[in-house]
Amino acid sequence: MRVGVKGVWPTIGMALAAAAILGVAVVPASGASTYRGNQGRTWAQVAKLPDWQGIWQLDWEHNLSLLGGMSPEEDLTPKAEAEYTSFISKQKFGEDVQPQTANCLPPGMPQIMTQPYPIEFLFNPGKVVILIEAYEQERTVYTDGRPHPEASTLAPTFQGDSIGHWDGDTLVVDTVGVLPDTGPGPHTGGGIASGVSHDVAMRIIERIREVDHDHMQITRTIIDPPVLVKPWTVTLPYVREKGDLLEYVCEEGNRDSATPNGRPGERIGGP
Amino acid sequence: MMKLVRAATAGLAAASALAAGSALAHHSTAMFDMRKNVTLTGTVRRFDWQNPHTWIVFEVPNESGGIDEYGIEGMSPNYLVRVGWNINTLKPGDKVELTIHPLKDGEKGGFDVSVKFPSGKVMYNLPHRP
Predict the structure, then answer these.
(1) Which domains, and CATH codes, for chain B?
(2) Cβ(A94)–Cβ(A167) below 8 Å
(3) Which chain B residues are closer than 8 Å to A67 by Cβ?
(4) Per-position b or e across A248-258, b if 16+ CB within 10 A of its CB
(5) Residues of chain A neighbouring B50 (CB-CB closer than 8 A)
(6) In percent, how much of chain B has pLDDT > 90?
């Protein structure tokens, strides 16, 4: 069931703090932005943006240690810590071992960006589209200067509402309106830590840039005061992958369904 | 053959942890014993080249003279095609050795780790570091 956000985006103050930490222009809460430089709003401007053609894969090989660093467990609020502990203890009894992605529901932001399948960036005037092979997801980042919709009218979605701007050769993306509980963490549960749902008012800021021809970097900050005692920033390395994106229809041959309490829903053994 | 399996196990200890955390993002590996490798010798009856996971129906002769049928899950076609597999890597009738992480519940099934062909060539299914 989708529950809307009440009132205005309550984490804007935190976003401003994060923007300051990141040394970026302030992300506007509303109204037309006045970012300087090429914002890619016409075809002529798009032609002058950095060339990100190709497909990109999170670099697990390079960053095995990152697996341990994918959850900010030391920065959880007491409420989130309790959710995490409860989740881990339930797993010992065979519950919550299967996330809803096992039923082919896509992970939402932020974990849709760290799947073991590549992503691709397409530039159009006023928007950057991020195609995500896993679960055939797509994020549109509007760079035309629009604000987020009013919080009271925005129904949360798996990938949320993303607006962005160019800070030189870096695309800065601001995402709100993400459904809580939309997929697995490192194993199962929320997008911040295993078993922990993010708040409906979570805000994510990504700074995306090409480091060199074969490497891309996304510095991601998650602002979620009910869950995190402070903004959580992690730098995710991506490497160029050969070829093109492929079709990924999860429902095609899924034999791994999960029950509502996270137990395997089907018998795997045998033919 | 056992030597091969041991070598594969060592190389896969880290890889399995990696796979559990990333490559198998679609579902948890809780049902498989990711620390145990079992090698089966038999015949491919079916190879389903489908997302979210490939699937092998594998026939293994048992001690009572019959055939046991195993259901073996593998990585997705999207993953495998990028590490050298294709839809014809396994065909019905192929006689191969399959190394799997077995199901914990004792059912006849598991997760594909690697395939050894009669020529001696080994194709890895899970992420593998030489």
Answers:
(1) 2-124 (2.40.50)
(2) no
(3) 17-18, 21-22
(4) bebeebbbbeb
(5) 252-253
(6) 66
Among B22, B55, B106, select the one facing A60 at the smallest CB separation.
Answer: B22
State which amino acid sits at residue A210: E
Structural domain including A17 reads: 12-242
Residue A256: inside a domain: no
Q: What is the number of structural domains in chain A?
A: 1
What pLDDT digit, counting tens, does each position of B14-55 carry? 333 343 344 455 777 778 888 999 999 999 999 999 999 999
The 10s digit of each residue's pLDDT in A243-268 is 999 999 998 888 776 666 566 666 66
ipTM exceeding 0.85, yes/no: no
pLDDT exceeds 80 at position A42: yes
**Chain B CB within 8 Å of residue A259 CB:** no
Using CB atoms, which residue from A133, A187, A242 is nearest to B28? A187
Show the tokens assigned to A137: 């997801």
Predicted TM-score (pTM) of the model is 0.82
Position A5 in a domain: no
A265 falls within a domain:
no
A268 in a structural domain: no
* C-alpha of A23 from chain center: 21
